[in-house]
Specification:
Blueprint (H helix, E strand, L loop, with lengths): L4 H10 L7 E6 L2 H9 L5 E3 L1 H7 L10 H14 L4 E4 L8 H14 L3 E5 L5 H18 L4 E5 L2 H4 L7 H15 L3 E4 L5 H10 L4 E4 L7 H7 L3 E3 L3 H20 L11 H15 L11
Length: 286
């Protein structure tokens, strides 16, 4: 059975449970999304960095709205699980422009977004979050608006003031309509627990080497953990290693254990068949 956008939206919200945190792999195109879904991902998130890199652009608001929405629509159309879209600052110069972006995201079928503050003021980010909330509500979809606070990631204040500043910003974003708060750059368990205890909405952290293991996150109060741009970085690392092995060592060792051609190509064939209404279905996990 194919789920509607509303079905997926309710499903995605229900997955934000600190007792069983939502673990999100990140994707940047249809193939990466299908591979992650086949591995058993209950939901997916796009990585703005990975999407930008795959199109020859640096991360950081260089991607255009139309191209970003095209990627979201392609990913949503290929998979059966809920998809959250990383929108950087909203791919717009103003809060009104963010509304247009969010309407496009909802019409593409995504059921969650990330909006980051970065170098923007908390006041401006609050306006963008509010615009996103209103636009989604106008479309009739309970979009999960995840506001990203970059205080730790960018070192926006002195280290001793990061927790207080993050909570201050998060409070503003929640008041503006955010459903969750994403705090990348934090791996210390004590700090993560303090953040979770201080927020009235689900806490999302970015995980990877050095971060608490997935099995530890529930005890810290985390409701959602994502891999950020690390998956795309690992994919590009595989390209570098394979090239170095070939040119410098004359070996193919780095290709050992790679997904088979038939496996990857089969996922794309199955997704195409599903879109065309044939009986062949995407793989459901190994």
């Amino acid at each position: 059975m194919t789920l509607t956008t509303l079905d997926r939206a309710h499903r995605f919200r229900s997955l934000h449970d600190p007792r069983h945190p939502l673990l999100l792999s990140t994707v940047w195109d249809v193939a990466s999304a299908l591979v992650a879904q086949d591995a058993g991902a209950p939901a997916l998130a796009t990585t703005s960095a990975g999407v930008a890199w795959s199109r020859g652009l640096p991360d950081g608001d260089h991607l255009g709205r139309a191209e970003a929405l095209a990627v979201v629509a392609a990913v949503v159309g290929a998979v059966q699980v809920p998809v959250s879209a990383d929108l950087e600052g909203g791919y717009a110069e103003t809060a009104a422009g963010v509304s247009e972006t969010v309407r496009g995201v909802v019409q593409a079928g995504a059921v969650g977004i990330n909006l980051e503050d970065g170098a923007r003021s908390p006041e401006e980010t609050g306006r963008r979050v509010a615009a996103a909330r209103v636009a989604a509500d106008d479309e009739g979809v309970p979009l999960f608006v995840n506001a990203r606070c970059d205080v730790y990631l960018r070192g926006l204040v002195e280290p001793g003031a990061c927790l207080v500043e993050t909570v201050r910003r998060a409070t503003r974003y929640v008041d503006a309509g955010a459903d969750g708060i994403f705090v990348p750059g934090v791996v210390d368990p004590e700090t993560i627990a303090a953040l979770a205890a201080s927020l009235p909405v689900p806490l999302n952290v970015m995980v990877g080497p050095g971060a608490p293991a997935p099995t530890e996150l529930s005890g810290l109060g985390v409701a959602r953990a994502s891999l950020g741009s690390a998956v795309a970085q690992a994919a590009y690392t595989a390209v570098r290693r394979a090239t170095v092995d070939l040119l410098d060592g004359g070996t193919y060792d780095s290709l050992t254990g790679a997904l088979g051609y038939a496996e990857v190509d089969g996922l794309l064939h199955a997704a195409a068949a599903h879109r065309e209404g044939r009986t062949e279905r995407p793989g459901g996990g190994r």
